[in-house]
């Protein structure tokens, strides 16, 4: 396992506009996410699964890749990640309601099973970790096309890596092992970011694995493994940037383990009070990645408190508008259930 | 070059080679496809001809073979993945069923998944229960993925080429017992058989025999035997379990009013059950006898040769079933 180098931090080269943009995505994701919980508790939507607490690792990762071009196989908790890739609060709201024109599937797919071709986001299935071999397949295709001369390896308008995310709980699956091994054997332009929030729904990490870090397993696949503070957006960006350069330059795959914590239950279907103490949750709330980044932005005079307040008001009004749009959108016509099963039925 | 008598494994090899020559996006991957020429020698000489980039020996890793094929297909390639036997495809079930079959629908057409998963299938080599399944109907249960099951070398070539060129995922089942069996195979590199079209193998007016893959051989043998007694069997080869083409079956049943379905697979919830259900639903007024099924016996397959043969269908079992419906 390779430890993060503190010497040359790629994040030191991020300009103020980019830093504000990163903060904006984290904030917008949080406010959208909070509204989804409210809508669920009001009985207006069937299901929500939250990114709250994970925004830093997702946004730090997203900003390191060629956004909208590189392939991304997210998992259900990646709301901030897909927002960084271009999914809007209005699109997400429509997906919660399953309304007409829903961006990922037209209302056929569950919310948070993100799929969005314009941003090269690939939808996953419900069993966890199954996206990992597929992301390895996408990375395989990238390398195949480059080696066959079908694309130029330096053409930034073409996908040059595949990124996939999952929770640490999903690394107990066979698919994860097979996908990582595949990426290692074929030395693929592949990044796997494990968002370790210490619980596989209710099962704590010590009941999931006998190693201290998921990234310790990287050695077994012959890939680079890195552990990073997943609540520090810039630290994540640093390791992500190194992984991206490795992928773009033929250096092979990287396993990034971002240590974080979810601030909500696993999904709208469970109650985390049965398996996590309130004291533990409160401790992590103090480490909220959005508060941490706010402090950084204030301390470094990148944003003022007034600008932070203004951003918050703006995010809330965007979420209000998104909800209103989703609620006023009609449901799909019944016949929509029947189409597009096969490729000729577009 | 001319059309010639060719074993099915060689016909499949021709199909794959022609499609790889035609389209650089087509590549093969799987266990033993390269240096060992494929478990069933369908990719003999491919590694030498196409190189390791397009002929990928993979880890023993069915989930990854399935998943990576889905990923590569969504990225615009046309993978032809091989899983050594259909029994091992159970390990790739999520990739095939939850992804390949659903990508187009769940993405509302944003992505296609033009992959072919080749699998060897069937019983009769004393390979026992966990090596010898014929579970194609499980895969055919799910909308979104086509399932091909050719009964002869000629069809195998035309169907595999059509599968590779199609934009939908295809599970392509190759009956192990049929690999060495020859038929006259066209050498036309554009010889394609349409997806989802059944085939009339033999005309007759007394009973309709519906079969697929290896079952077709037993149906034709039974038809020969019964013809000597003056019973004329019409034999229909389904070729594809999805899309399932019942047009010829219905046309035939209107004439014969009797049907026997023959398949190597187990009976429960099988193709025979589906055909019987569709006939009674659509042609109830034409029915003169119960629809019979000839299947393997409803047990896991035993190892001992005699027991294995006892459990399998054969032509005599077809003859007996026909006599019951006449």
Question: First CA to last CA of chain A: what distance?
Answer: 47 Å
Q: What topology, given as strand order, has the largest sheet of chain B?
A: 3-2-4-5-7-6-12
Described by its quaternary structure, the protein is: heterodimer
Low-confidence stretches of chain B: none
Structural class of chain A: alpha/beta
CATH C-level of chain A: Alpha Beta
The fold-level CATH name of the largest domain in chain B is Rossmann fold
Structural domain count of chain A = 1
User: What does the main sheet of chain A amount to?
Assistant: 5 strands, parallel
Count of DSSP E strands of chain B? 14
- Cα radius of gyration of chain A in angstroms: 20 Å
The string of secondary-structure elements of chain A, in order, is HHEHHHEHEEEHEHEHHH
Q: Whole-number radius of gyration of chain B?
A: 19 Å
Overall geometry of chain A comes to: globular
The largest sheet of chain A has its strands arranged as: 1-2-3-7-6
The CATH architecture of chain A is 3-Layer(aba) Sandwich
User: Number of helix segments of chain A?
Assistant: 11
Could you please describe the fold and organization of this structure?
The complex is a heterodimer of chains A (346) and B (326). Helices cover 41% and strands 9% of the residues of chain A. By secondary structure, chain A is α/β, with parallel strands linked by helices. Chain A has one domain (16-71, 128-326): Rossmann fold (3-Layer(aba) Sandwich). In chain A, the strands form 2 sheets. Chain A has a 5-stranded parallel sheet with strand order 1-2-3-7-6, sandwiched between helices. In chain A, strands 4-5 form a two-stranded antiparallel ribbon. Chain B is of the alpha/beta class. Helix content of chain B is 36%, strand content 19%. Chain B is built from 12 helices and 14 strands. Chain B has helices spanning 8-22, 46-50, 62-74, 93-100, 103-106, 136-140, 153-165, 215-227, 247-256, 271-282, 305-311, 315-325; strands spanning 4-7, 26-30, 55-57, 78-83, 116-121, 146-148, 170-175, 182-185, 199-202, 207-211, 233-237, 240-242, 259-262, 292-294. The longest helix of chain B has 15 residues, at 8-22. Chain B is globular and about 55 Å long. The termini of chain B are far apart. At the A-B interface, α5 and α6 of A face α3, α4 and α5 of B.
């Amino acid at each position: 396992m390779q430890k993060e180098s503190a010497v040359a931090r790629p994040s030191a080269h991020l300009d103020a506009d980019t830093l504000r943009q990163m903060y904006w995505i984290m904030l917008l994701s949080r406010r959208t996410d909070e509204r989804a919980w409210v809508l669920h508790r009001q009985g207006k939507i069937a299901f929500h699964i939250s990114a709250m607490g994970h925004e830093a690792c997702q946004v730090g990762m997203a900003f390191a890749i060629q956004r909208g071009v590189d392939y991304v196989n997210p998992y259900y908790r990646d709301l901030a990640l897909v927002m960084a890739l271009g999914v809007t609060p209005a699109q997400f709201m429509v997906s919660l309601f399953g309304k007409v024109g829903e961006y990922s599937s037209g209302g056929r797919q569950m919310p948070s099973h993100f799929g969005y071709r314009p941003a090269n986001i690939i939808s996953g299935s419900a069993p966890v970790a199954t996206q990992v071999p597929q992301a390895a397949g996408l990375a395989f295709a990238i390398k195949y096309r480059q080696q066959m001369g079908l694309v130029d390896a330096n053409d930034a308008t073409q996908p040059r890596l595949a990124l996939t995310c999952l929770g640490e709980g999903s690394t107990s699956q066979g698919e994860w092992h097979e996908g990582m091994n595949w990426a290692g054997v074929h030395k693929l332009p592949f990044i796997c970011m494990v968002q370790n929030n210490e619980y596989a729904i209710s099962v704590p990490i010590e009941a999931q694995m006998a190693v201290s870090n998921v990234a310790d397993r990287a050695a077994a696949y012959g890939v680079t493994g890195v552990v990073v503070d997943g609540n520090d957006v810039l630290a994540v960006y640093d390791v992500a940037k190194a992984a991206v350069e490795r992928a773009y330059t033929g250096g092979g795959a990287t396993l990034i383990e971002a240590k974080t914590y979810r601030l909500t239950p696993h999904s709208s279907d469970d109650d985390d009070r049965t398996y996590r103490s309130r004291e533990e949750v409160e401790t992590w709330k103090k480490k909220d990645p959005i508060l941490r980044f706010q402090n950084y932005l204030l301390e470094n005079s990148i944003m003022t408190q007034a600008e932070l307040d203004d951003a918050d008001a703006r995010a809330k009004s965007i979420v209000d508008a998104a909800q209103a749009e989703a609620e006023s959108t009609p449901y799909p016509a019944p016949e929509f259930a029947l189409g597009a099963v096969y490729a000729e039925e577009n | 070059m001319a059309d010639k008598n060719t074993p099915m494994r060689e016909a499949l090899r021709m199909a794959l080679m022609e499609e790889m020559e035609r389209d650089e996006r087509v590549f093969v991957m799987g266990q033993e496809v390269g240096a060992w020429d494929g478990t069933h020698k369908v990719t003999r000489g491919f590694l030498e001809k196409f190189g390791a980039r397009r002929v990928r020996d993979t880890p023993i890793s069915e989930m990854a073979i399935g998943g990576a094929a889905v990923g590569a297909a969504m990225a615009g390639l046309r993978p032809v993945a091989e899983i050594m036997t259909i029994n091992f495809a159970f390990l790739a079930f999520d990739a095939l069923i939850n992804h390949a079959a659903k990508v187009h629908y769940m993405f509302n057409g944003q992505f296609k998944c033009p992959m072919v998963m080749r699998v060897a299938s069937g019983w009769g080599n004393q390979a026992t229960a966990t090596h010898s399944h014929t579970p194609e109907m499980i895969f055919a249960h799910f909308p979104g993925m086509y399932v091909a099951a050719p009964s002869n070398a000629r069809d195998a070539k035309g169907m595999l080429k059509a599968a590779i060129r199609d934009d939908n995922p295809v599970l392509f089942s190759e009956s192990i017992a049929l690999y060495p069996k020859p038929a006259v195979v066209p050498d036309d590199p554009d010889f394609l058989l349409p997806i989802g079209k059944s085939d009339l193998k033999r005309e007759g007016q007394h009973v309709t025999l519906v079969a697929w893959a290896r079952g077709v051989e037993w149906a034709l043998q039974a038809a020969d035997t019964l013809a000597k007694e003056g019973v004329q069997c019409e034999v229909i080869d389904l070729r594809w379990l999805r899309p399932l083409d019942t047009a010829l079956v219905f046309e035939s049943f209107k004439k014969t009013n009797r049907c026997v379905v023959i398949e190597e697979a187990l009976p429960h919830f099988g193709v025979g059950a589906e055909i019987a259900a569709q006939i009674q639903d659509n042609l109830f007024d034409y029915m003169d006898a119960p629809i019979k099924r000839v299947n393997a016996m409803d047990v896991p397959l035993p190892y001992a040769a005699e027991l294995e043969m006892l459990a399998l269908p054969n032509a005599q079992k077809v003859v007996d079933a026909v006599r019951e419906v006449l």
